[in-house]
Amino acid sequence: MSAPIPYAAFSLRRIAAMILRYWYLMRSSWPRLLELIYWPMVQMLMWGFLQSYVDQNATFFARAGGTLIGAVLLWDVLFRGQLGFSISFLEEMWARNMGNLMMSPLRPLEFVLALMVMSIVRLAIGMVPVTLVALWFFDFNLYALGFGLAAFFLNLILTSWAVGILVSGLILRNGMGAEGLAWTFMFLLLPLACVYYPVAILPGWLQTMAWLLPPTYVFEGMRAILIERTFRVDLMLMAFVLNAAYFLLAVAGFLRLLDSARRYGSLIQTGE
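Given the sequence above, the corresponding structure tokens read:
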């Protein structure tokens, strides 16, 4: 038996080719582009008007002005970042193209990097208009968070990538029957990530679990900036440490699931 042909050197051209493929797919379909903006816009308007009502009727929330809108916008960074990654991956599954890609010179990590770039592209298309509407309608300037916003974004996008990578591996191994994970997995984290309320609201035993999730530190950090006018470096560093660990575990899990999918023939059988 002849020795397997080794992968070619790591190639930025292959990554760029995959990014270009997804860009053409997205650009050619106006419903895809509309969907990127529609749900973030609906959520922002709904919670924004609720915030306006609370501002007029509750002293505490008036002092904590912007926490609901800020939480909605940052939650969408987390959710849309993961969904942008997963949708680009599912494009290949829907087209039954995964087997072809894995037989090409494209390395698995190059494929993952291309999906990461596309998640940012999709996120930018959906979120930039929404943040401008938040400024126009509700006088909430997300960009005024400055360095805090950069720290929040970095940690949230790392979490979204880790979840997206793991979910993609599970779909590869288990077929399209596991597609629902791409839409629902992140919502499993929603109650424990304390997006709309502080960790202190949770029962003690749930607080321990909440502090194991990087987004919890981000949303606590957001409330610290908006309510206490304090940037919590300790929270951001802890979130980054957890994110680095989860991201590496997700990549390792994806590679193992991909190897298992190859051995069991799941790359070819992409049905339910």
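The chain has one domain: 12-264. Try to locate this feature in the token string yourself.
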